[in-house]
Design a protein that fits this description.
With about 425 residues, this protein is mainly α. Helix content is about 80%, strand content about 0%.
């Protein structure tokens, strides 16, 4: 009888531990799935098509950089229980907070345009008008946020984002050459300016400024405490591996196909991606696999980007901002701003607004914003956290150095992009 009792207690403890794990994990995974949005996946495909397997190494090197940046937001959010914009306002003043929030808002709207263009492009692959797909996506994304619970929003976002993993099937069908991949890993054509520029574009595509605002706000809305830091780090690390794994899959797929041909075909839309792969895996499989991955990435990114922008601005305004509270007088500003972000993005895409110049302007804004956000992130980590939660020793110097390198790449991107504009 005593053995049965002990066994029962062990089972309860095991179930409790599993529940605790599920309760904590999520913010890192959803923000990383959002990181591989339509723009990122097109950048990865272009990288593989233009420079083949030599683009594998940069994606691998970005894994620690991405993890380290997002891990700082975990500690800042959990320990202070304050969002990124709120901490900037309190520690550096309203002016700097508005600069950060303002550029974040422009960047978020620009990113939302990319996501809705991605949704429209997937629909057009199957002959469905954007006048059907874009409004449906808008209603879905707005409706998810009104569910009255951050956890429900998170689960829905992760469920949608996991559709990106469908593209793994494409790589299996293509069967890339392993020896050529190894050779590409050891080749770095650093003397070619176009290669360096594309590496910089990948840095900008992988490390998004809105990710910092989102994950810091998410761990607060999830009511995580200091005991959760270790598990949330694990969540962030697994998410980092997933997002970079998806980027690598796209690089490898297009390196093994278009990267081995003399074709100079442009890859600037969802249709271009499917058309490029069609000769190698068939037209319908290409449409289905590209469509699933782009649609999943676009929808989860639209959800995360809109929340990041809304959290950032409402933090600076000192408005009530939580997905755990239903729409009422106190939270009206938060929900209205979130809804407007989606509606404005959808309307601009449906109205055939001049998107080329805007897209270039957004890239310039992102390049400017990345050094600002990473600079604030490092400054806040050193200033507001108790010593036991701060980076120490060699790890501190490694993180700081890598962040500075990324900031330099961000600044480097401004010149070429501004020249094109």
């Amino acid at each position: 009888m005593e053995k049965v009792h002990i066994s029962g207690e062990k089972n309860l403890l095991k179930k409790s531990a599993n529940y605790h794990w599920l309760k904590i994990w999520g913010p890192g995974l959803i923000v990383m799935l959002a990181d591989t949005d339509a723009g990122c996946l097109i950048t990865a495909a272009q990288s593989g098509a233009q420079w083949g397997y030599t683009m594998i190494l940069p994606q691998l090197l970005l894994i620690p950089v991405l993890y380290m940046a997002q891990e700082m937001t975990v500690r800042l959010g959990i320990v202070t229980h304050k969002g990124h914009g709120e901490l900037i306002r309190e520690n550096f003043g309203t002016g700097w907070a508005w600069l950060s929030a303002g550029t974040l808002a422009v960047s978020a709207i620009g990113a939302l345009l990319t996501e809705f263009i991605g949704v429209a492009g997937v629909g057009e692959l199957f002959g469905i008008s954007k006048w059907i797909t874009v409004p449906i996506a808008t209603i879905l994304l707005v409706g998810i946020a009104f569910s009255g619970s951050y956890r429900r929003v998170e689960r829905a976002g992760i469920g949608i984002g996991l559709a990106e993993l469908a593209f793994i099937i494409a790589v299996i069908m293509i069967r890339p050459n392993l020896s050529q991949m190894v050779q590409g890993l050891m080749t770095i054509p650093w003397r070619h300016s176009s290669y360096i520029y594309l590496v910089a574009a990948n840095v900008g595509a992988v490390i998004m400024p809105w990710m910092i605002f989102y994950q810091q706000g998410a761990v607060i809305d999830k009511n995580l405490n200091a005991d959760s830091i270790k598990k949330e780090r694990q969540d962030t690390f697994v998410g980092t591996l997933v997002t970079q794994g998806i980027m690598l899959v796209f690089v490898i797929a297009f390196a093994a196909t278009l990267g081995t041909s003399s074709s100079s075909e442009s890859l600037s839309s969802v249709g271009d991606l499917a058309g490029g792969l069609a000769p190698f895996i068939g037209s319908m499989p290409a449409k289905i696999l590209i469509g699933a991955s782009i649609l999943g990435g676009s929808l989860v990114a639209a959800l995360v980007v809109a929340l990041a922008g809304t959290w950032g601005i409402t933090e600076v305004l000192n408005w009530k901002h939580s997905l755990n509270e239903p729409l009422n007088r106190k939270t009206a500003g938060f929900y209205i701003m979130y809804t407007l972000a989606h509606v404005i993005g959808a309307v601009l895409v449906l109205a055939n607004f001049e998107l080329v110049n805007m897209a270039v302007a957004v890239e310039v804004m992102n390049a400017l914003l990345l050094p600002i956000v990473l600079g604030f992130l490092l400054a806040l980590e050193a200033k507001v956290l108790p010593k036991k939660y701060c980076m120490q020793g060699m790890y501190k110097w490694i993180v700081t150095t890598l962040c500075v390198v990324v900031m330099v790449f961000g600044i480097y991107m401004i010149g070429p992009i501004a020249h094109l504009w």
